[in-house]
Write a structure and sequence with these properties.
Elements: H1 9-19, H2 28-41, H3 46-60, H4 66-79, E1 91-94, H5 95-102, H6 107-122, E2 126-128, H7 132-139, H8 145-157, E3 161-163, E4 168-171, E5 180-184, H9 192-200, E6 204-206, E7 213-215, H10 225-248
Antiparallel strand pairs: 1-5, 2-4, 3-4, 6-7
The structure holds zinc ion.
Protein backbone atom coordinates (compact mmCIF):
# COMPACT_ATOMS: atom_id res chain seq x y z
CA UNK A 1 0.00 0.00 0.00
CA UNK A 2 1.17 3.50 -0.86
CA UNK A 3 1.96 5.95 1.88
CA UNK A 4 -0.34 8.94 1.33
CA UNK A 5 1.28 12.05 -0.17
CA UNK A 6 -0.49 14.44 2.18
CA UNK A 7 -0.98 13.07 5.66
CA UNK A 8 -1.53 13.87 9.31
CA UNK A 9 0.57 11.52 11.42
CA UNK A 10 -1.35 12.13 14.64
CA UNK A 11 -4.71 11.22 13.03
CA UNK A 12 -3.22 8.28 11.12
CA UNK A 13 -1.54 6.97 14.30
CA UNK A 14 -4.85 7.06 16.20
CA UNK A 15 -6.62 5.12 13.41
CA UNK A 16 -3.89 2.46 13.25
CA UNK A 17 -3.82 2.21 17.04
CA UNK A 18 -7.60 1.65 17.09
CA UNK A 19 -7.99 -0.55 13.99
CA UNK A 20 -4.61 -2.27 13.62
CA UNK A 21 -2.26 -2.25 10.62
CA UNK A 22 -3.93 -1.12 7.40
CA UNK A 23 -2.97 -4.31 5.55
CA UNK A 24 -3.47 -6.51 8.61
CA UNK A 25 0.26 -7.16 8.78
CA UNK A 26 3.29 -5.56 10.38
CA UNK A 27 4.65 -2.46 8.63
CA UNK A 28 7.56 -0.41 9.98
CA UNK A 29 6.19 3.03 9.06
CA UNK A 30 2.87 2.31 10.78
CA UNK A 31 4.67 0.84 13.81
CA UNK A 32 6.57 4.12 14.26
CA UNK A 33 3.26 6.02 14.10
CA UNK A 34 1.75 3.80 16.81
CA UNK A 35 4.90 4.31 18.91
CA UNK A 36 4.42 8.09 18.55
CA UNK A 37 0.82 7.66 19.67
CA UNK A 38 2.04 5.83 22.81
CA UNK A 39 4.63 8.54 23.45
CA UNK A 40 2.74 11.76 22.75
CA UNK A 41 -0.92 10.82 23.31
CA UNK A 42 -0.62 8.23 26.09
CA UNK A 43 2.49 9.80 27.61
CA UNK A 44 4.55 6.58 27.87
CA UNK A 45 8.35 6.44 28.16
CA UNK A 46 10.74 4.28 26.09
CA UNK A 47 10.53 1.09 28.20
CA UNK A 48 6.74 1.10 28.37
CA UNK A 49 6.46 1.91 24.63
CA UNK A 50 8.66 -1.07 23.78
CA UNK A 51 6.39 -3.41 25.78
CA UNK A 52 3.04 -2.13 24.49
CA UNK A 53 4.33 -1.81 20.93
CA UNK A 54 5.29 -5.48 20.91
CA UNK A 55 1.87 -6.37 22.31
CA UNK A 56 0.28 -4.26 19.58
CA UNK A 57 2.24 -6.10 16.86
CA UNK A 58 1.43 -9.54 18.30
CA UNK A 59 -2.28 -8.65 18.41
CA UNK A 60 -2.40 -7.15 14.93
CA UNK A 61 -0.20 -9.46 12.84
CA UNK A 62 -0.96 -13.15 13.16
CA UNK A 63 2.42 -14.03 11.62
CA UNK A 64 4.35 -11.76 13.95
CA UNK A 65 7.81 -13.08 14.84
CA UNK A 66 9.32 -11.66 18.03
CA UNK A 67 12.88 -12.74 17.29
CA UNK A 68 12.99 -11.45 13.72
CA UNK A 69 11.49 -8.09 14.60
CA UNK A 70 13.20 -7.24 17.88
CA UNK A 71 15.53 -4.75 16.19
CA UNK A 72 12.63 -3.15 14.33
CA UNK A 73 10.77 -2.54 17.57
CA UNK A 74 13.84 -0.90 19.10
CA UNK A 75 14.30 1.22 16.01
CA UNK A 76 10.59 2.24 15.97
CA UNK A 77 10.85 3.31 19.62
CA UNK A 78 13.83 5.54 18.88
CA UNK A 79 12.22 6.98 15.70
CA UNK A 80 9.08 7.81 17.69
CA UNK A 81 11.01 10.58 19.49
CA UNK A 82 10.47 12.78 16.43
CA UNK A 83 7.25 14.77 16.86
CA UNK A 84 4.11 14.15 14.80
CA UNK A 85 4.27 15.57 11.27
CA UNK A 86 1.22 17.18 9.77
CA UNK A 87 1.26 17.64 6.00
CA UNK A 88 -2.48 17.50 5.44
CA UNK A 89 -3.37 21.19 5.22
CA UNK A 90 -4.83 22.23 1.82
CA UNK A 91 -2.11 23.74 -0.42
CA UNK A 92 -2.94 27.26 -1.59
CA UNK A 93 -2.15 27.97 -5.25
CA UNK A 94 -1.66 31.63 -6.18
CA UNK A 95 -2.13 33.49 -9.45
CA UNK A 96 1.56 34.35 -9.91
CA UNK A 97 2.40 30.65 -9.63
CA UNK A 98 -0.20 29.71 -12.26
CA UNK A 99 1.22 32.46 -14.52
CA UNK A 100 4.73 31.04 -14.16
CA UNK A 101 3.52 27.59 -15.24
CA UNK A 102 1.46 29.07 -18.10
CA UNK A 103 4.62 30.76 -19.43
CA UNK A 104 6.17 27.36 -20.16
CA UNK A 105 5.71 26.05 -23.69
CA UNK A 106 4.22 22.62 -24.31
CA UNK A 107 1.42 20.75 -22.62
CA UNK A 108 3.49 17.94 -21.09
CA UNK A 109 6.07 20.50 -19.93
CA UNK A 110 3.36 22.47 -18.11
CA UNK A 111 1.72 19.41 -16.60
CA UNK A 112 4.89 17.88 -15.14
CA UNK A 113 6.01 21.28 -13.82
CA UNK A 114 2.63 21.65 -12.11
CA UNK A 115 3.04 18.26 -10.40
CA UNK A 116 6.62 19.02 -9.30
CA UNK A 117 5.54 22.43 -8.02
CA UNK A 118 2.58 21.10 -5.98
CA UNK A 119 4.69 18.29 -4.49
CA UNK A 120 7.39 20.84 -3.65
CA UNK A 121 4.86 23.07 -1.89
CA UNK A 122 4.26 20.28 0.64
CA UNK A 123 8.03 20.14 1.18
CA UNK A 124 9.07 23.77 1.77
CA UNK A 125 9.71 24.27 -1.93
CA UNK A 126 11.94 21.28 -2.58
CA UNK A 127 11.48 18.15 -4.68
CA UNK A 128 13.76 15.19 -4.05
CA UNK A 129 15.06 12.74 -6.63
CA UNK A 130 13.35 9.87 -4.83
CA UNK A 131 9.96 11.47 -5.46
CA UNK A 132 9.70 10.70 -9.19
CA UNK A 133 7.23 7.92 -8.36
CA UNK A 134 4.98 10.50 -6.75
CA UNK A 135 4.97 12.50 -10.00
CA UNK A 136 3.79 9.41 -11.89
CA UNK A 137 1.23 8.65 -9.19
CA UNK A 138 -0.41 12.08 -9.02
CA UNK A 139 -0.44 12.48 -12.82
CA UNK A 140 -1.52 8.88 -13.52
CA UNK A 141 1.34 8.86 -16.00
CA UNK A 142 4.05 6.44 -17.08
CA UNK A 143 6.65 9.15 -17.69
CA UNK A 144 10.19 7.76 -17.32
CA UNK A 145 12.87 9.01 -14.92
CA UNK A 146 14.96 9.98 -17.96
CA UNK A 147 12.09 12.10 -19.25
CA UNK A 148 11.63 13.76 -15.88
CA UNK A 149 15.37 14.57 -15.68
CA UNK A 150 15.25 16.13 -19.16
CA UNK A 151 12.31 18.26 -18.10
CA UNK A 152 14.09 19.29 -14.87
CA UNK A 153 17.02 20.51 -16.99
CA UNK A 154 14.62 22.40 -19.22
CA UNK A 155 12.92 24.09 -16.25
CA UNK A 156 16.33 24.95 -14.80
CA UNK A 157 17.28 26.61 -18.12
CA UNK A 158 14.12 28.74 -17.76
CA UNK A 159 15.05 29.69 -14.18
CA UNK A 160 11.91 28.01 -12.83
CA UNK A 161 13.86 25.78 -10.53
CA UNK A 162 17.37 25.43 -9.25
CA UNK A 163 18.70 21.99 -10.13
CA UNK A 164 21.36 20.71 -7.78
CA UNK A 165 23.70 17.97 -9.03
CA UNK A 166 21.79 15.35 -7.12
CA UNK A 167 19.29 14.72 -4.36
CA UNK A 168 16.97 17.69 -4.65
CA UNK A 169 15.77 20.71 -6.62
CA UNK A 170 14.39 24.00 -5.40
CA UNK A 171 11.34 25.46 -7.13
CA UNK A 172 11.98 29.17 -7.65
CA UNK A 173 8.54 30.55 -8.46
CA UNK A 174 6.76 29.54 -5.25
CA UNK A 175 4.95 32.45 -3.64
CA UNK A 176 3.72 32.58 -0.11
CA UNK A 177 0.97 35.06 -0.80
CA UNK A 178 -0.99 36.78 -3.57
CA UNK A 179 -4.33 36.16 -5.23
CA UNK A 180 -5.56 32.73 -4.22
CA UNK A 181 -6.83 30.76 -7.24
CA UNK A 182 -7.66 27.40 -5.64
CA UNK A 183 -6.36 24.89 -3.09
CA UNK A 184 -5.17 21.30 -3.48
CA UNK A 185 -6.54 18.96 -0.80
CA UNK A 186 -5.24 15.61 0.47
CA UNK A 187 -7.90 13.98 -1.76
CA UNK A 188 -7.49 16.03 -4.94
CA UNK A 189 -3.70 15.63 -4.93
CA UNK A 190 -4.24 11.98 -5.80
CA UNK A 191 -5.67 13.07 -9.14
CA UNK A 192 -3.57 16.11 -9.93
CA UNK A 193 -4.05 15.33 -13.63
CA UNK A 194 -7.71 16.31 -13.27
CA UNK A 195 -6.87 19.42 -11.19
CA UNK A 196 -4.41 20.41 -13.94
CA UNK A 197 -6.99 19.88 -16.69
CA UNK A 198 -9.57 21.93 -14.79
CA UNK A 199 -7.14 24.87 -14.67
CA UNK A 200 -5.12 24.55 -17.89
CA UNK A 201 -7.56 22.61 -20.10
CA UNK A 202 -7.19 19.21 -21.71
CA UNK A 203 -4.43 18.16 -24.08
CA UNK A 204 -5.97 18.60 -27.53
CA UNK A 205 -4.67 17.78 -31.00
CA UNK A 206 -5.95 18.00 -34.57
CA UNK A 207 -6.23 14.70 -36.47
CA UNK A 208 -4.09 14.89 -39.65
CA UNK A 209 -6.78 13.07 -41.68
CA UNK A 210 -10.21 14.33 -40.62
CA UNK A 211 -8.90 17.67 -39.21
CA UNK A 212 -11.19 17.42 -36.17
CA UNK A 213 -9.98 18.23 -32.65
CA UNK A 214 -9.63 15.44 -30.10
CA UNK A 215 -8.26 14.87 -26.61
CA UNK A 216 -4.78 13.38 -26.81
CA UNK A 217 -4.48 9.76 -25.62
CA UNK A 218 -0.74 9.33 -26.14
CA UNK A 219 2.25 11.52 -26.96
CA UNK A 220 2.95 12.06 -30.67
CA UNK A 221 -0.60 11.02 -31.56
CA UNK A 222 -1.37 12.00 -35.18
CA UNK A 223 -4.77 10.47 -35.86
CA UNK A 224 -8.07 10.02 -34.03
CA UNK A 225 -9.23 6.49 -33.23
CA UNK A 226 -11.38 6.09 -36.36
CA UNK A 227 -8.81 7.55 -38.79
CA UNK A 228 -6.07 5.51 -37.15
CA UNK A 229 -7.98 2.27 -37.85
CA UNK A 230 -8.58 3.26 -41.47
CA UNK A 231 -4.91 4.20 -41.79
CA UNK A 232 -3.77 0.85 -40.39
CA UNK A 233 -6.07 -1.06 -42.76
CA UNK A 234 -4.71 0.92 -45.69
CA UNK A 235 -1.10 0.20 -44.69
CA UNK A 236 -1.97 -3.47 -44.37
CA UNK A 237 -3.61 -3.50 -47.82
CA UNK A 238 -0.57 -1.85 -49.42
CA UNK A 239 1.71 -4.35 -47.73
CA UNK A 240 -0.35 -7.25 -49.15
CA UNK A 241 -0.08 -5.80 -52.67
CA UNK A 242 3.69 -5.41 -52.27
CA UNK A 243 4.02 -9.00 -51.10
CA UNK A 244 1.95 -10.25 -54.03
CA UNK A 245 4.08 -8.31 -56.52
CA UNK A 246 7.23 -9.75 -54.96
CA UNK A 247 5.83 -13.30 -55.28
CA UNK A 248 4.85 -12.87 -58.94
CA UNK A 249 8.35 -11.61 -59.75
CA UNK A 250 9.72 -15.16 -59.29
ZN1 LIG B 1 -9.57 11.69 -37.65
Amino acid sequence: MYRPIMYNEEEDAKKIYENGFRNKEYNFYETVLVAKHFRYVMGYGDAKIKTVLKEFCITNDKFWNDVLNLRNIKSAVSKSRKPFVNKSNPIPIYKDEIDAITSVEGYKQKKVLFAIFVLAKINNGYIYNNEWNKIRRVLHSKITNKNIFELIEYYASRNLLYATKNLYHKILFINLQGTLVFTVSSESINNLKKVFEDVFGKDLFVCVDCKKTYERRSYNQKRCKECSQIHKKELWRLQKIRQRNKMSAY
